[in-house]
Amino acid sequence: MRVAGVMSGTSLDGIDVAIVEIRGHSIETIGFTSTPYPAAVRAAILGVSNCPTHTAAISRLNFHLAERYAGAVLAAVKRYGPVELIGCHGQTIFHEGRSNTLQIGEPAVLAERTGVPVVANFRARDIAAGGEGAPLVPFVDYLLFRHPRRTRVALNIGGIANITVIPAACAPQDVVAFDTGPGNMVIDALARQFSGGKRNYDRGGRIAASGNVNRALLDELLRDPYYRRKPPKSAGREQYGVEFIVRLRESGAPLRDLVATATVLTAATIAMGVQRVVQRAVAGPADLIASGGGVHNPQIMTHLAGFLPGVDISTSTDHGIDADAKEAIAFAVLAHETWRRNPSNLPSATGAKRAVVLGSITP
């Protein structure tokens, strides 16, 4: 079955579409496209994310984003051929694990424009079953990266960073996964301020490289109890959005130093998560397989290697899965499982009371 996976994450980079051929346990990526959000759309999403807003703005954006998703899918289909199913994560505008979550991007519009059934609203059923509603990608990480002799830690550095720890030859219930903390989100916001809105991210880590890490501020940030809390746990713009940036700016440090500090914070909190779980649960060699936009930031990756000596660090591209496409691929696979009425959350990762079928189908 050919499935299109649509992902737009907390970094607000745009719309990723992966077209995947699924045959049994075989997952083949046919093609991948990425469509950036226009500045006005990015601003509109930020305007309704984790802040008081009018319901009319949310309703209008819910339909507008679906039109953009449809355009992105149709462009990918034109390039790579037709699909039979679409899995659309939607754009998260609010998330409180174990309580509530909201992703917008109306699936009815997407189904109507493309003429293809859509699976959406993946996170809600896991929360209804007592889970965090995140992370959901570990189910796919397990399928893609499980190894008979080596522990694999799948890392995604999107707006938020998360890891999936897959012990050698493990069963699905042995997988541990959680959000480690900020990925690119804080760095991106500071880079926009540093550049006066001309840059949406720190290309090549150049701003961070030009600054100095504020050690006192970093130590203060690392004292956040979240980083030491046992999983399951999830994070989002609620922790690392506007209020967090205001807190950093109140330190009085120069913006380039704040970017440098936020970059080390991302790497350090990922490393803390890896070390705490791997040291407790794993014996033998471990591989860290990274994906997401953060793999293109050499400052993050260099700091990460420094914090994790002895861990073999690679990217998912090195293992045949495009590092930029992995999250979109994952939601294509999750949609396929939903279409077949198969549960696809991992309770060991989300904390749900049981495995459940995720999402809603719009035929």
For the record, the CATH class of the largest domain is Alpha Beta
Note the overall shape. globular
Label the structural class. alpha/beta
Going by CATH, the architecture of the largest domain would be 2-Layer Sandwich
Series of secondary-structure elements, N-terminal to C-terminal: EEEHHEEEHEHHEEEHHHHHHEHEHHE
- Count of DSSP strands: 13
Rounded to an integer, what's the Rg over CA atoms?
19 Å
Look at the structure and give the mean pLDDT. Answer: 94
Q: What percentage of residues falls in helices of 4 or more residues?
A: 40-55%
User: What name does the CATH topology of the largest domain carry?
Assistant: Nucleotidyltransferase, domain 5
Give me the side-by-side strand order of the main sheet.
3-2-1-4-7-13
Tally of DSSP helical segments? 14
What key attributes describe this structure?
alpha/beta; Nucleotidyltransferase, domain 5; 6-stranded mixed sheet; 5-stranded mixed sheet; globular
Could you explain the architecture of this structure?
This protein has 363 residues and is an alpha/beta fold. It folds into two domains: 2-133 and 326-362, 2-Layer Sandwich (Nucleotidyltransferase, domain 5), CATH 3.30.420.40; 138-319, ATPase, nucleotide binding domain (Nucleotidyltransferase, domain 5), CATH 3.30.420.40. Helices cover 41% and strands 22% of the residues. It is built from 14 helices and 13 strands. It has a six-stranded mixed β-sheet with strand order 3-2-1-4-7-13, sandwiched between helices. A five-stranded mixed β-sheet has the order 10-9-8-11-12. A two-stranded antiparallel sheet has the order 5-6. It is globular and about 55 Å long. The mean pLDDT is 94.
